[in-house]
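[recover] target loaded
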């Protein structure tokens, strides 16, 4: 998620072993939310909006989670007139690259989605970056849509920090969702369309692999 010249340099560096980063390459699942909600008794559709680095990887992970009906890459945190890739990439739009997850709460709960998020989708202790991607547009955010989502997210972060699950404190923001703006068409399903892209192979494929390994009951190969 850089300009083309910088992307090429970083990819070459990675292939030479200069950059060995991949989120989730040695991840283990974090504990379940102590105050997580039960699955719904009947099927339906709810949404969650999460951000944590390049949206290609976040989308790729949640497209493989059982109960997720759709995952859309986009922008949240800024205004409509700055919700485009070129502007967001400058790092001053207020937006974070985000993913809107539409899911069936009878198959997967909001708390389970957050557990996947913290376990394999990102490093929640990195501030305004994820691996090779730096800037506020790559910050880690849970955009809550209602009081229940806020309560679950804040309690879960407090639980993980208190248990010292990570070496450093979680810096993931928990903020109200004002709007979600879908990204350009060429960003949608990017990881599945371009599996041999070196960036995807180094940074995003390991996340999906760890989802399959650590959450076999939630993983779907669709």
């Amino acid at each position: 998620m850089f300009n083309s010249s910088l992307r090429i340099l970083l990819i070459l560096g990675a292939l030479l072993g200069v950059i060995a980063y991949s989120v989730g390459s040695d991840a283990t699942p974090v504990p379940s939310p102590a105050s997580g909600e039960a699955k719904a008794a009947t099927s339906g559709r709810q949404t969650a909006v999460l951000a944590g680095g390049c949206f290609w990887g976040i989308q790729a992970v949640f497209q493989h989670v059982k109960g997720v009906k759709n995952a859309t890459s986009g922008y949240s945190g800024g205004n409509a007139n700055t919700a485009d890739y070129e502007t967001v990439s400058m790092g001053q739009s207020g937006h974070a690259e985000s993913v809107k997850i539409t899911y069936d709460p009878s198959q997967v709960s909001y708390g389970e989605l957050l557990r996947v998020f913290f376990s394999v989708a990102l490093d929640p202790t990195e501030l305004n970056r994820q691996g090779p991607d730096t800037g506020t547009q790559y910050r880690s955010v849970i955009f809550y849509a209602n009081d229940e989502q806020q309560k679950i997210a804040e309690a879960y972060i407090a639980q993980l920090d208190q248990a010292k699950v990570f070496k450093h404190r979680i810096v993931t923001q928990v903020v109200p969702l004002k709007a979600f703006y879908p990204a350009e068409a060429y960003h949608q399903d990017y990881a599945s369309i371009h599996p041999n892209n070196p960036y995807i192979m180094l940074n995003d494929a390991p996340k999906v692999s760890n989802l399959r390994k650590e959450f076999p009951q939630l993983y779907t190969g669709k």
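[recover] notes: Residues 198-214 form the longest helix (17 residues).
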